[in-house]
Amino acid sequence: MDLVEIKPPQWDVEIDLAYATVRNITGKPIYAHARCYLHRDAAEALARAIELARALGYRFKIFDAFRPSEAQWALWNKDPNPEFLADPRRGSPHSRGVAVDLTLIDGQGRELEMGTGFDEFRPIAHHARLDVPLEAQRNRVLLLGLMTAAGWDFYRNEWWHYQLFNPRRYALYSDSALPPGQEMMPRPLEPIPAG
Which of 9, 19, 135, 161 has the fewest Cβ atoms surrounding its Cβ within 10 A? Predict the structure, then answer.
């Protein structure tokens, strides 16, 4: 399998998967298990970004990474907005394990001001907005610089989203691609035996 798990302490990041909580556009957890995976190529690029951020006194907080195709459908069914969500029929870079949604945190674990929260599906979340506070503009540029220097491409509509270049060269994965016992999505309930 080409997906590797990203978790502390092996990875110097904070994991806060929004889709394992009610803090997402559906208002309910999509993931039953808050596990963070990336394709091995994306994991290598994340390792480079971590080193660059560490040199400046920052760390990353990850909101989402690999997103099983089933989860992409759950988001799309709630809000089929191609400005912010990839149509699951074409496949998301997240469902290929080559995209990560993240922000920077300081030495005390506080998120840097970015002008909006994660998954704020409004134009104000686009890169290079001049109508967010100056501090947020600087922080967005800092995040952009760190990630692009580490080999990531960015999505212009979401300051938090980064992906590998040419993501369609990677295979799409569903939850079943994960090892048994390592799945993210809820499992169907087993039938209760009669009597």
Answer: 9
Averaged over successive runs of 10 residues, the pLDDT of the chain (195 residues) comes to: 92 98 94 97 98 98 97 94 92 97 97 96 95 98 98 97 97 93 79 47
Map tokens 């993210």 to a residue. Answer: 184
Has this prediction a pTM greater than 0.70?
yes
Query: Does 127 carry a binding-site annotation?
Result: no
Does residue 30 sit within a domain?
yes
Q: What is the pLDDT of residues 43-52, one digit of tens each?
A: 999 999 999 9
> Does residue 158 carry a catalytic annotation?
yes
> CA 171 to CA 66: how far, in whole Å?
12
126 known ligand binder: no
What is the C-alpha to C-alpha distance for residues 169 and 185, in angstroms, rounded to an integer?
Answer: 25
How far is residue 105's CA from residue 14's CA, in Å, rounded to a whole number? 9
Single out the catalytic residue among 83, 158, 183, 190: 158
Task: Answer whether residue 183 is part of any domain.
Answer: no
**Number of separate domains in the chain:** 1
- The answer on whether 12 is annotated among ligand-binding residues is no
Taking the C-alpha atoms of residue 135 and residue 112, their distance in angstroms, rounded to an integer, is 9
Q: Output the CA–CA distances (angstroms, integers) from residue 108 to 55, 58, 104, 105, 145, in the order listed.
A: 16, 9, 11, 8, 22
Query: Contact 130/138 with Cβ under 8 angstroms?
Result: no
